[in-house]
Amino acid sequence: MRRLPLLAAAVALTAAIPAQAHAATHGDLLSVKPLKAKGAVLKGAAKNLLVTYKTKGIDGSLVTVSGTVVYPKGKAPKGGWPVFTWAHGSTGIADICAPSVATGSGAVSAYSSYANPLLERVLKAGFVVVRTDYEGLGTPGVHPYINGVSEGRSVLDIVRAARKIDGKVGSTYFIGGHSQGGQAALFAASLAGSWIPELKLRGTVALAPASHLGEQSTILRNLDATSFSPIVSIILRGAEVSDPSLNVESLLSDQSKALWPQTLTNCLPDLGQPTSFGGLTAKQLLLPDADITALTAYLSRQDPETLTIKSRLLIEQGTADGTALPVFTDQLVKDLQGRGKQVTYKTYEGVDHSGVAKDAKSTKDMLTFLGGR
Q1: Alpha-carbon torsion 142, 143, 147, 149, what sign?
Q2: pTM value?
Q3: Is 235 helix (H, G, I), strand (E, B) or coil?
Q4: In whole angstroms, what is the distance from residue 83 CA to residue 244 CA?
């Protein structure tokens, strides 16, 4: 008799995933279980769930992606809670760097320290918060880092999947993200109307979004500094995964080739160590005579400044950001405005890269944009 409660719980959890009579498609919910990774849990939640779902991968096939679905406290409004789908910043490419797994302690802890307090505020405002790990991060395959379409699909499909858990998740949603996730949020916004047309996008928030990647690739190869080398190493790996015809490995210096396998095993903090890519200057990463024309063209296709975005859009940027440089975000806003897009652009004096997600004023501006209860 003591087994009955456990059996009932297992049946209830299985019942939460309706049988799918239709052909498999992106946004299908595969599994739901309690979220146990402490670094991923939002403490103000009524319920933290770990999910897996389907999205369309870079090769066109359906792939499995992991993520989290977190419910606010209180009674869901008629029609269900509105959704906030969050795109996380860079942690690395290795599976241990997936935020929902939270085993890559350095990178995930750093990410959680600035993202979780912000998401707690969004949760308290009355949103179900969903967070994708992205394609290949914590699930089979290799994460095609900074591939905008791949990221955008993952960000959108977790909203569709969350709605299949129960009737408490509504059909209206916002998109948000920081850094890599800011770029991902913008791509998701551009795809939203055609990718999940049955749902209603109310607005998009991009904090210090990565942009002008192709332009920066021509600058970094002449940069005699080590600070950007770890992030460049995973940009290069992501490009190789996304488009093997680029033959990225043939562009690497001998020093980079020796360290290349670490991009698949280490998170960003470890890649930044002197014994890893943190010991090389940016201009030491590639061969001096490497032809990066095709690579630059690929990275330019990941630039959000060429996107058509129809939803309301807020971009926030710290003036002291040394990672997503303000000069590029300023230009991004001008590029989007030049394409006829109205953008609310907020800058915060003296705020650095992670600080834009922690700053009291930027958080208030974001919550005002979102509305909520």
Answers
A1: positive
A2: 0.92
A3: helix
A4: 36
CA distance 212 to 31: 37
Q: Kindly give the confidence (pLDDT) of every residue in the chain, 373 residues in length, as a single tens digit, with 9 standing for 90 and above.
A: 333 333 334 334 444 455 455 789 999 999 999 998 888 999 999 999 999 999 999 999 999 999 999 999 999 999 999 999 999 999 999 999 999 986 555 666 767 788 999 999 999 999 999 999 999 999 999 999 999 999 999 999 999 999 999 999 999 999 999 999 999 999 999 999 999 999 999 999 999 999 999 998 888 778 888 999 999 999 999 999 999 999 999 999 999 999 999 999 999 999 999 999 999 999 999 999 999 999 999 999 999 998 999 989 999 999 999 999 999 999 999 999 988 888 999 999 999 999 999 999 999 999 999 996 5
Residue 335: its H or E element: helix 326-338
**Nearest-angstrom CA–CA distance, 86 and 43:** 17
Q: How many whole angstroms separate alpha carbon 151 and alpha carbon 238?
A: 12
Structure tokens at 247: 């033959």
Q: Where are the chain's structural domains?
A: 22-211+305-370, 213-300
φ/ψ of residue 111, rounded to 5: -65, -50
Amino acid identity at 295: L
State how far the Cα of 318 lies from the Cα of 356, in Å rounded to an integer. 6
| C-beta separation of 94 from 104 below 8 A | yes
Instruction: Quickly name the fold that domain 22-211+305-370 has.
Output: Rossmann fold (3.40.50)
Dihedral pair phi/psi, residue 246, rounded to 5°? -70, -25
User: First-to-last CA distance in the chain?
Assistant: 44
- CA angle, residues 26, 29, 34, in degrees to nearest 5: 145
Q: How many CB atoms lie within 10 A of CB 325?
A: 16
Helix, strand or coil, per DSSP, at residue 271: helix
